[in-house]
Amino acid sequence: MGSVFLLTLRQTGGRLRLVIMGVLASLPVFFAIMAVRSAQAPSVEEFEGVALGGMLAGSILPLVVLAVAIVVFGNELEDRTLANLTLSPLPRWKIVLPKWFAAVVASGSFMVLSAGITSHVGFNSDWRATLAVTASTAAGVLLYASLFVWLGLRSSKAIGLGLAYIVVWEGFFAGFVSSVRFLSIRHYAIALMHGLDARRFATEPHVGMGATLAVSAVVVVGFLILSIRQLRRMDIP
Amino acid sequence: MAALSPDDAVTAPRGGRAPVIEVNHVSRWFGSVVAVSDVTFDILPGITGLLGPNGAGKTTLLRMITGLAKVSDGTVTVLGEPVRDNPPLYRRIGVMSEHETVYGFMKGRNFVKMMGQLRGVSDLDAAVDKAIRLVDLVDAAHRPMGTYSRGMRQRMRLAATLVHDPEILILDEPLNGADPRQRVHFQSLLRKLAAEGRTIVLSSHILEEVEQIADTVLLIVNGKLAASGGYRAIRAALDKRPYHVMVVSDSPRALAAAVVQLDSVDAVNIDPDGTIVVLSRKVRELQVELPRLAQAAGISLRRVEPLDDSLESVFGYLVER
What we know:
Chain A is mostly helical.
């Protein structure tokens, strides 16, 4: 599995992609710095709503993960090198898991760093809040990566579909329709953040911690199983 | 299908040996397009050439044999097992697809090594060195594959296909991009591998290429098995086909009247524009007799051109029979 992981990590490391991910990941950090330096610093609720829930979990996190997770299979399907892997005696899960994990590591390294610095700055070096935000971001990376890896394997229009999902589902429906929050990765991440530091993030009722963990596990495992199934059944170009 | 003697037919096990690959009434369609239609054959150890014009369905057939593509109907078994969704079987199969894309950032040796790792090769470094030596690319092994020529890429891909010492080799258009020297080297390598008891299936759209390498030939045209057997049997079937030769002269009617008397000519047609089309099964004799005849009759030949020398027309003839 190490070979597949390292190969995928190398394939996701295009210079342009790294620059885009770096720029996106640094936006919440700049926002946090500007916020704490302004004369009227935002409240915890405002900072959470705009910087964490909106900017980080709602748009930058899924965009960065999308940029990486889509290509772990998508690029190999496009340039027809995936057969190098599927014509090996590896069980299909030993191809899907390292590719998913490579997507998690590649995008997660940017997002965890971004979340850590943003929350550390925004919450005045409150380590518990920093840990809560960083851990929930890491969980978001795992969740989004499992979804987008499957999407990249399932459709040649994965980028468009992924963007539509981020904007329409996570951005619009999950933002305005409360019942949809139970089917929103963004809100799983936010709920986890609340659960990990109820002291600081206890202002708004969200999905419970236990339910969030259970559903998150189901989402990750479910999409990984779907990816393995898809790889077994599809024609490899 | 071209008539072949039972000795030549590849569908019958030779010398009591069990078939290594069994393709049984296999079809594949994409929507309303039928790429492969009800094809049945067995493949035995040795070199089998899958021959056919571009777009005939060779690659689709090979992709189904390797398990990369599913069959719409029928069954494919390799070494007695279904090949589709059966990864352990790939320890015994080496596949080189027609697509020449490589990981451009990766050094040739690292690519072969990675393929060996994926296939669970035990003495990896020795196996990698051996495979690279076999394809004669030792000097270029430490260069990124993005800097390779097309022929070098193909050879390094072949090394990666051979690294786990497979019993079965399936090679789709392996000689694409190879220069004449590389072709000779490749052919001798394949013969050596086949002599060790391996089963090798290779596809090509070039008749001579298959003639030089393959023990048996499967001729695929329009997704169907047009002929199968030893190369000589295929060749004999092709020789029964009348060739069309276009002749332009300054006196078409006089030439047609004289040409039709030749033993090498089956029929003569005159087009309204004065062009003669000669049908002949003995084209070599016609090549000798026609200029002599024209000279004796005082007729000036302006153009003599075979009309259907392409593989497509040859294959088309076999399908229509």
